[in-house]
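does this look right to u?? NDP version
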Amino acid sequence: MTNNQEKKHHKIAIIGSGPAGLTAALYNARANLNPVIFEGMQPGGQLTITTEVENYPGFEEGIQGPVLMDIIRKQAHRFGAESIYKEIIEVDFSKRPFTLKTYDDVHTAEAVIISTGASARLLGLESEKFYMGYGVSACATCDGFFFKGLTVMVIGGGDTAMEEANYLTRFAKEVIIVHRREEFRASKIMYDRAKKNPKITFLKNKIVNKVVGIEENGRKSMTGVILQDTKDKSLTEYKVDGLFLGIGHKPNTEIFKDILDMDETGYLKVKPGTTFTNIEGVFAAGDVTDKTYRQAITAAGSGCMAAIDAERWLEAQEH
Ligand code: NDP
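got this back:
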């Protein structure tokens, strides 16, 4: 350890600050365990890139994603949880206490809750970033409702894209699935369901070149998408009100590779019905373990489970 590295010991360290991590912190803080939350690269997690959240129970009129996360964080802090605005870049779970490294210091913890979440895969375009939350979305369940009677595009050729497109037909008048190849990766059943849906049309061999829109009185809103044909390279602008990215999610589990059990797509495995990973004292909650539901409320619920599992496990260690 160099001089500028400080070492700190914690009873419970929580890695990740989405609804799972912050809820775990709230519960552990109320149990007097003084948890620390390593907030990571995106404090508040995926909800901070959505706008209105209307399906989180308790907010009759809906609430802005970043505001909701701020409330849960303050609620946890009120009982003694501490946020450390750093990213964990390396862990050593081979011996207890566990070691967690940030870019400039080292922490140890008796128990660790992993709630590093998943990230929606994005195209990586500047214009996509610019209109994110203003027409561009990576979550139909979160934002589909805002596209009642409108036309939207869904990018991707896998099951996520088919599922999102089908879901969006509940609101949108027209849904266009845009895929970069001729063949679809989606399972036959999901593809057939989308094909049979009269509101869904397909554009194949096309990639997104640019999201276009307007900015008036400081308010921005997308108005269309320029697609490029992968064969003849021609560019065409399509007038659409929304763009949904259905190109998959990636669990944020890089630093746990070869340390914790994961499925073939990188999601952490937990003992069914619990938040126990394969290493005693290390728990996992939220989207990092869940490729099925991926909702703020399910993440918060499993964060609560992890806090209770960790608390009981620590108590058992003391006896
Ligand atoms: P997949 O990796 O299966 O599909 C991603 C799709 O996005 C592919 O068609 C891919 O194209 C396309 N894509 C990736 N990057 C880009 C890009 N930069 N530009 C344009 N297109 C891009 O991910 P999914 O999330 O769809 O599925 C992940 C797993 O989850 C699968 O096992 C799936 O079966 C499962 N799943 C199951 C569901 C269900 O059963 N209800 C629902 C959702 C997912 P290409 O094909 O050319 O690579």
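Residues 100 and 258 are 16 Å apart (CA to CA). idk if thats expected tbh
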